[in-house]
Design brief:
With 767 residues, the protein is an alpha/beta fold. Helices cover 44% and strands 15% of the residues. The strands form 6 sheets. It has a 7-stranded parallel beta sheet, sandwiched between helices. A 6-stranded parallel beta sheet has the order 8-13-12-9-11-10, with helices on both faces. The longest helix is centred in the middle third of the chain and has 23 residues. It is globular. The two termini are 56 Å apart. About 6% of the residues have low confidence. It binds adenosine-5'-diphosphate (ADP) and magnesium ion (MG). Magnesium ion binds next to helix 3.
């Protein structure tokens, strides 16, 4: 079975490995067990029911809420060689009858159906006479009245299942993680001892950034200028913002479209299709745009305004990078966003079905969600950990792939100011919000302060030398750490807590970390087109050619380009330069069926462009090519000419000095019997002044050792592998072969004491 699973995965879907959670779900389904799977957007839920559908004897019926979503999935399945069909209101009665006729004869393995079609006599007749192996409920949260997307017709799914002569396996999938919604799904579908799983919410390939700025238009324009070739979505809070931004960007010559509920159904449809078929690059939209957008190569999601909750944010941001490739999620925040969202929430109409008490509770909940969202925009902690904690997952402290982890922070001792804040909140009677408290401490001369005679307070003007922004930051951090408490209502009054007094004790210390002042380009800007960075100049040329070919093939078959091949697939072609069908099959995303359909035109194009000269066209990723390609880190590919290889890695900041082996570092090195090359580099990096000097990288060491003849680069299957030479072994290096998750061999290098001394000497000579 294992083999069949893997084989099906490769043949029909073109993937070499399962993503986290997928295999377990598939196994349980195949064992005949019901399943309830909660997986974040983009995690790959479809595969979890599509793959078993191919391995089980009968037909799988997939209930799905949106017509566009169904059509896309069915198209993609047929492209992959899986016979599938859909039944929904877009078909005429005749077409529907015909589809069901064919279904009866066993033409299709998978049939997508809209919930309201399930109980039509025609569909029931078919379902009762066909062999159904599974009923899958996609977007299963639509069954819950507590979710945002409640669909009454979903509630009737259970009636349908009960009318079947034999109960098939029932599986349900959603990205909504709350306990309540999960409960609703379990009971409303009456799942029988289901295998329940919640897959990790982390999306490693997504880079998160918050930009506090009032110049949003300008920032967004700059971002688009740097990412012209990529598809992206920009979410705005209101229709008005969408229209404004759309006109502005269109005027600036960008390829943009828009989408919001104020537009007619037809206009929305056209706009959505333009985006999916790559006729426009950027979609500017309200949150009405989203569910059912399966476009997998969205490279960035920008938020022009802060959304109202983390749930909304993560779902929208999660539409970036569904193909697993690096993608960026940037939120542009200004305090105005909080004000507007508060107003929106306050004026939100609540259903009359709720009692006053219930309405109040919902309102309070909304405000609390907004507060947490705001906290995300203001925090200096790792953004990813902030998100994961919100969804109840513990995580590492620093992810290294968000603006807060990459940004440089400085520690500032603000003990005095913090103590004054406590005093000020106390003497003013714990009845004001942070703007007022800051105003008093800054010594502002406002009517409100005078009204309350607070200019006579002993703390008035005590922190006048501190900037307003900084003081607000102190107050915010105090709240975040529990030294103050902010009432959750609209007045957001600051109150003292049990901890507050600690700050008044002699010797109490309060240190906050602040972003360094200079206005540097965003961390994201530095990662510009990360996914193309590992291509050589020639590789990029080839990529463009392949992209054109993909567009042409997609046009011919009337499918979106990403259904033909993902960016990652094209990029791998540019790196590996496959010249035969066998080599083409090695490329991520190229299964047997895809190969049959598109293999030849791609092979031909690669042959014509490169003339089969793999050595000078293919980029040469470093030995751990699999990691490089899995999207974690694109800083590692050796440029083909081997020159442009500074000592820095992608994450170092601009203004530091290049690494050099100072006397201080040299004398600090401790030689050990054996250590891996990367640990040795790490040891040296620990000895340097990290704030002033860039890192020594393993990449650089590897290159220099190659120049010295200790290592050698060999090309195998289009991958460069660095291997040890005799000279290297004599100099005190040892290689251990490892096999990557993808089954590719690579080497890990170790240095004996002699090797370590060799390295130091080498550095002394070069640096
Ligand atoms: P979800 O429904 O969970 O939001 P999808 O099923 O639309 O996600 O899958 C998102 C993307 O992930 C798709 O482009 C799909 O091809 C890809 N994908 C799914 N499983 C794998 C896998 N095992 N390896 C690589 N890519 C995968
Ligand atoms: Mg899905």
């Amino acid at each position: 079975m294992n083999d069949r699973k893997k084989q099906t995965l490769k043949t029909y879907f073109g993937f070499d490995a399962f993503r986290p959670g997928q295999e377990e779900i598939i196994d349980h389904i195949l064992a005949g067990r019901d399943v309830l799977a909660v997986m974040p957007t983009g995690a790959g839920k479809s595969l979890c029911y599509q793959l078993p559908a191919l391995l089980m004897p009968g037909i799988t019926v997939v209930v799905s809420p949106l017509i566009s979503l169904m059509m896309d999935q069915v198209k993609a399945l047929n492209e992959a060689g899986v016979h599938a069909a859909y039944i929904n209101s877009s078909l005429t009665e005749n077409q529907m009858a015909k589809a069901l006729e064919l279904a009866k004869t066993g033409q299709y393995r998978i049939i997508y159906v809209a919930p309201e079609r399930l109980e039509t006599p025609r569909f029931l007749d078919f379902a009762c006479h066909a062999e159904l192996s599974m009923v899958t409920v996609d977007e299963a949260h639509c069954i819950s009245q507590w979710g945002q997307d409640f669909r009454p017709s979903y509630v009737r799914i259970l009636d349908f299942i009960r009318q079947l002569p034999v109960r098939p396996v029932v599986s349900a999938f959603t990205a909504t993680a709350t306990e309540r919604v999960r409960e609703d799904i379990l009971t409303s579908l009456s799942l029988e001892k289901p295998y329940e799983t919640v897959t990790g919410f982390d999306r490693e390939n997504l880079y998160f950034e918050v930009k506090r700025t009032r110049e949003k238009k300008l920032r967004v324009r700059k971002y688009l200028e740097d990412h012209r070739e990529e598809s992206g979505i920009i979410y705005c809070a209101t229709r008005k913002n969408v229209d404004e931004l759309y006109l502005y960007l269109e005027n600036e010559g960008f390829s943009v479209g828009r989408y919001h509920a104020g537009m007619g159904a037809e206009a929305r449809k056209v706009s959505q299709e333009d985006f999916i078929y790559d006729r426009i690059k950027v979609m500017i939209a309200t949150n009405a745009f989203g569910m059912g957008i399966d476009k997998s190569d969205v490279r960035y999601v920008l938020h022009y305004n802060m959304p109202q909750s983390m749930e909304n944010y993560y779902q929208e941001a999660g539409r970036a990078g569904r193909d697993g490739e690096p993608a960026e999620c940037i939120l542009y925040y200004s305090p105005q966003d909080t004000v507007i969202n508060r107003l929106l929430l306050e004026s939100k109409e609540h259903s009359r079905e709720y009692t006053e008490e219930e309405t109040e509770r919902i309102q309070a909940q909304d405000m609390e969600r907004l507060r947490r969202m705001e906290a995300y925009c203001l925090t200096s902690k790792c953004l990813r950990s902030c998100i994961l904690e919100y969804f109840g997952e513990s995580s590492i402290e620093k992810c290294g792939n968000c603006s807060n982890c990459l940004e440089e922070f400085e520690e500032v001792d603000v003990s005095e100011a913090a103590a004054d804040v406590v005093r000020c909140v106390g003497v003013s009677g714990q009845r004001f919000g942070s703007a007022m408290i800051a105003g008093i401490l800054l010594g502002e001369n406002t009517a409100k302060i005078r009204n309350y005679r607070l200019e006579q307070s002993p703390v008035y003007g005590r922190q006048s030398s501190m900037g307003q922004a900084m003081l607000r930051e102190v107050i915010r951090t105090m709240t975040e750490r529990g030294y103050l408490w902010q009432t959750p209502d609209r007045y957001a009054v600051l109150k003292l807590t049990d901890l507050s007094e600690e700050l008044l004790e002699p010797g109490a210390s309060f240190v906050i970390s602040c972003k360094k002042k200079e206005d540097r380009p965003s961390a994201a800007g530095k990662r510009k087109s990360a996914q193309l960075q590992d291509l050589t100049e020639r590789g990029k040329e080839l990529f463009e050619e392949l992209r054109k070919l993909r567009a042409a093939l997609a046009g011919k078959r009337k499918v979106p380009p990403y259904v033909v091949a993902s960016d990652r697939t094209l990029r791998e072609m540019c790196i590996r330069i496959p010249l035969t069908k066998e080599e083409m099959l090695e490329v991520h995303g190229m299964g047997q069926k895809k190969l049959e359909q598109y293999g030849e035109p791609f092979l031909e194009k690669i042959q014509t462009v490169t003339k089969g000269d793999r050595a000078s066209w293919g980029a040469v990723p470093r030995a751990e090519a699999d990691d490089t390609l899995s999207g974690k880190d694109f800083s590692g590919g050796f440029p083909e000419d081997g020159k442009a290889s500074p000592l820095t890695d992608g994450k170092s900041r601009g203004r530091k000095a290049e690494f050099c082996l100072t006397e201080e570092i040299r004398s600090g090195i401790r030689y050990v019997p054996e250590i891996s090359l990367s640990e040795f580099a790490a040891q040296i990096n620990d000895l340097r002044d990290a704030s002033a000097m860039k890192r020594l990288t393993v990449k650089w060491l590897t290159e220099k050792l190659t120049e010295q003849g200790c290592f050698q680069v060999q090309i195998q299957n289009g991958y460069a592998r660095t291997v040890l030479t005799d000279r290297g072994a004599n100099a005190g290096f040892r290689a251990e072969r490892r096999i990557s998750a993808k089954g590719h061999p690579y080497e890990v290098f170790f240095c004996t004491e002699a090797g370590q001394r060799f390295l130091v000497e080498m550095m002394e000579q070069i640096l």
